[in-house]
Here is the input.
Amino acid sequence: MGVSEAWSRERARLLGRAKRRVGSADDAEDVVQDAVLAAIGRAGSLRDEVRLSAWVGRIVDRKAVDVTRARARQARGQVDMGAAHLVTQPVVSATCFCVRVQARRLRPHHSEVLQRVDERGERLAVVATELGLTTNALTVRLFRARVELRDAMKRHCGTTSARSCDDCGCAERACCSPIDDG
Here is the structure.
């Protein structure tokens, strides 16, 4: 058996191994390619040539796990952040001040990011830089602030939507009076 035939068999084995873990043939191709490049880059650390196949197989497994975890993180981020943004986005109408009042009653660092990003529309990268945070850290802080605001709105007003806050009774109770925009 020649080198070409041996590589074809090994490649097919690795592709099958990767496809079982990542699900698609295209992703499996990417995983195997990344694994082979990593193996070539670290070939000097291989002590027993007899174990080459197993060693590359473990690299494929680790790369496949990385791909699966990245997909899961991305899916969680899209679902969680998107849902939180839709539920708690402070869109304030002329007659509703509950959202602003409740947002200003939150912890100062949550109140600040809600005010700057959601009310004023400042860009995440700018706010993150000014606060000395990474954009990812600011995104997490904003997500937590929105969740905290949603919970505060639920406790205080009985609603979690900024748009339905006219139905909450705060106008009759006069507990969320108009506040200055300064």
Notes: Residues 52-88 form the longest helix (37 residues).
